[in-house]
Design goal:
Number of helices: 6
Oligomer: single chain
Distance between the termini: 126 Å
Helix content: 10-25%
Strand content: 35-45%
Structural class: alpha+beta
Length: 320
């Protein structure tokens, strides 16, 4: 306590300290007078008023509706505290009050101001509203079901593969518009998606590209592109002979061959599904060589880089 009293005495004795305290006092008094004059006089302020359109469930708005209206308001300064610290009520306009009953919803500046006067402080004067008017197209026609065309380019990394077709959460959407526009819409497209060097299954929400004077529902779909890692495999398969005439037997040496390939990890335990064949019709009987080419017969589409340990084998023809 003695230390604090000593510091207080030193501050009071210091001319510099007294000057600072006097300056601060004038600043505080000036601020009080400024606040009194400002908040007791008229000022203008821009207020953001949320906008809502009350419409029947079967009606779809075809034009973009602003989320808020920018309203310039004039009022006593102290009344603006209610706008600053309280959430502004939304302006709700009923479609039936301002529509032509067919396709147009229009509200001019004067009607906007009149409607806003019921939302804002009753003492406030509305100077201006932006946008100055609303001109919105709508339709009550049922939606037209159209297919979705995906614009998707996917490339896995070199040691991975696309394993299966693209999966979509749905293959069609509903389009709402006027009769003339609907007659010209037969499909919709997703936004372009391009992914490279993928190492895992791609899952993505993709938006449907917008259409002028139309509304699409839903506005986005889920897609999935299955990606799997490739693993090298080596197995032995029997060589089959094709197109041998009746009474002719073709003996092969060796009769089987090792096949090396890359397959998706999920198919490692499966049988290969790969067949090796020689074609009797491909034998050149005028050649001094007694070898025939080994070819791939059947092969699952998911397998890659299939090679045989022998590109040809020896043969002997037996006739019965």
């Amino acid at each position: 306590m003695k230390l604090l009293k000593k510091i207080k005495t030193k501050l009071q004795e210091s001319p510099r300290t007294r000057s600072i305290l006097l300056y601060l006092s004038f600043v505080i008094i000036s601020a009080i007078f400024w606040s009194f004059l400002t908040f007791n006089g008229d000022i203008q302020l821009d207020i953001q008023v949320p906008l809502e359109i009350n419409k029947p469930n079967n009606v779809h708005l075809l034009s973009k509706v602003p989320d808020t209206l920018t309203v310039t308001v004039k009022d006593r300064g102290y009344r603006f505290f209610s706008y600053l610290f309280n959430k502004t009520k939304p302006l709700t306009l009923r479609l039936t009050d301002y529509s032509d009953g067919i396709s147009d919803f229009k509200v001019d500046q004067s009607h906007l101001k009149k409607a806003l006067s019921h939302v804002l402080n009753k003492h406030s004067t509305i100077i201006n509203v932006l946008p100055e008017s609303l001109n919105i197209k709508f339709t009550d026609l049922p939606g037209k079901k159209v297919p979705i065309k995906t614009d998707i380019v996917v490339e896995p990394r070199e040691d991975y593969t696309l394993y299966g077709a693209l999966i979509q959460s749905q293959d069609s959407v509903l389009v709402f518009s006027d009769a003339k526009t609907l007659s010209n819409i037969n499909e919709v497209y997703t936004y372009h998606v391009e992914e490279t060097e993928l190492t895992d299954t791609l899952r993505r929400k993709v938006a449907i590209a917008p259409i002028n004077n139309a509304v699409v529902e839903p506005r986005a779909i889920e897609i999935m592109v299955p990606i799997e890692k490739l693993k090298s495999q080596t197995r032995s398969v029997k060589i089959a002979v094709r197109n041998a005439p009746t009474g002719v037997k073709m003996l092969l040496f060796p009769s089987d061959v090792e096949v090396t390939y890359r397959s998706p990890v999920s198919r490692i335990s499966d049988d290969t599904g790969i067949t090796a064949v020689v074609d009797y019709n491909s034998v050149d009987f005028n050649s001094k060589s007694n070898k025939v080419k080994v070819m791939i017969g059947e092969m699952p589409a998911a397998y890659q880089n299939v090679t045989f340990s022998h590109d040809s084998v020896e043969y002997i023809i037996e006739k019965h």
